[in-house]
Amino acid sequence: MATKHEQILMHIETLKVGNKISVRQIAKDLNVSEGTAYRAIKEAENQGLVSTIERVGTIRIEQKKKENFEHLTFAEIIGIVDGQVLGGREGLYKTLHKFVIGAMKTDAMMRYLEKDSLLIIGNRVEAHRLALEEGAAVLITGGFDTDDDIKRLADELKLPIISTSYDTFTVAAMINRAIYDQLIKKEIVLVGDIYTAYEKTHYLNRTDPLQKWYHLKDQTTHSRYPVVDDQMRVVGIVTSKDVIGKSDGLTVDKIMTKNPLTVVKETSLAYAAHMMVWEGIEIVPVVDNNQRLIGLISRQDVLKALQNVNRQPQVGETIDDIVTSELSVEKDGTQYVYSSKVSPQMTNALGTLSNGVFVSFITEVSSRMMTNMKKGDLVVETISVYFIKPVQIENMLTIHPKILEIGRKSVKIDIELYHEKDIVGKAILIGQLIDRY
């Protein structure tokens, strides 16, 4: 039977897109406390089912698919530009597909407008009307208002008309940045992208005899299985270590390891990989927000996915992408030497290499060296920076990594950074190595 929290989420999913949602009304309709209703609505917001807008309230929106992350809803636009809704609130859930800056004559502007686009413009009332009639929403810059009949038209057509105090150029830059950030998020691989649903996996019930573990092991060759209760909540895990010396007649709950590590679908693949490597775990249960089992991820699945990610170009460029693209490598005898120019994006407010980019150089160089040496993928444990000197913009860096210790599963690397012949940074990186499958 579903919990009250789950019942509320299911109820929200059944609501029509555009419906307004309130804590009080949900509590009344489903006979739950306002606290329970509030927590469920917040979870629905995290899942992208609703959006809460200041001075408007919470509305049901279309849940975004990952491939459509570059599109924003009008509700999100309000949050980005700190806007105020003047009319057409019922259309806030809609997704905009492009925006048009109205810095041209009206007839020229109309050629660019289409259904579900957004016109960014000042206090040109006639342009507001024409945009709405073309099926486009309107964002009025400079803090201006519009006529009451325009607001009524927006309500009638269910197309938002929004006002913001920012100027047109700033608004366009803010929306572009938001779309860019969405593109970066789109490329981040999550557990939910690779996990195997529980229907296709094996698990144990807490009342099962230990003999079932042996049966599953013979059937699958795995030795680690999650344990669930009668509500499908993960309550433990059984491994080969747990069964050593135990009688086959014991029930699983008597020998299982309680409170196992779990992940949710929203966990990043990189975090899951790090956790599995450091804990020496081969399989991790994937759970929902109520700890109910929804699937499993294996270490091999994670590593394969990470290797595929490394081969995919990122649509939205991050600082790490900039560092990676700027690095070149040469082999000096048995040593690898890396070099890069300090570009404007790598600097802090003082125009010198930022500490964060310094650490990115250390991580990237160490990972590349392990790959070049065919030692596997590097998972960083600690980085100790014990000397750093300001490096100016446009200066050329050379980076000299040197292995201090290396084993089958771990490595310690000393990294020195030079500008010309002067040393400008020193660090030690300790990490674990994971084999490539």
TrEMBL record:
Pfam families attached here? 4HBT, CBS, DRTGG
Extract the SMART domains matched here: CBS
* CBS domain boundaries: 195-254, 256-314
Its keywords, alphabetically, are: CBS domain
Alphabetical list of CDD domains matching this protein? CBS_pair_DRTGG_assoc (cd04596), hot_dog (cd03440)
Query: Which SUPFAM superfamilies does the UniProt record give?
Result: CBS-domain pair, HprK N-terminal domain-like, Thioesterase/thiol ester dehydrase-isomerase, Winged helix' DNA-binding domain
Note the InterPro entries from the entry: CBS_dom (IPR000644), CBS_dom_sf (IPR046342), Diverse_CBS-Domain (IPR051257), DRTGG (IPR010766), HotDog_dom_sf (IPR029069), Ser_kin/Pase_Hpr-like_N_sf (IPR028979), Thioestr_dom (IPR006683), WH-like_DNA-bd_sf (IPR036388)
**Protein name per Swiss-Prot or TrEMBL:** Putative transcriptional regulator
Species this chain originates from: Streptohalobacillus salinus
